[in-house]
Amino acid sequence: MRTVKAAVIGAGFIGPAHVEALRRLGFVEVVAIVDSDKPRLEQKAAALAIPRAYDDYRKVLDDREIEVVHNCSPNNLHFEINQAILEAGKHCVSEKPLATNSKESRALVALAEKTGKVNAVNFNYRFYPLSQQARAMCDAGDVGEVYAVHGSYLQDWLYLETDYSWRLDPKISGESCCVADIGSHWCDLVQFITGRTITEVLGDLQTTRKTRKRPKATVEAFAGKLLTPADFEEVKISTDDYANVLIRLDNGARGVFTVSQLSAGRKNRLYYEIDGSKCALSGDLERPNELWVGYREKANEVMIKDPSLLKEAARPYAHYPGGHPEGYPDGPKNLFRNAYSKVLGDPAALPFPTFADGHRAVAIVDAVLASSRSRQWTKVSY
Question: Under CATH, domain 125-374 is a member of which superfamily?
Answer without folding.
Answer: Dihydrodipicolinate Reductase; domain 2 (3.30.360.10)
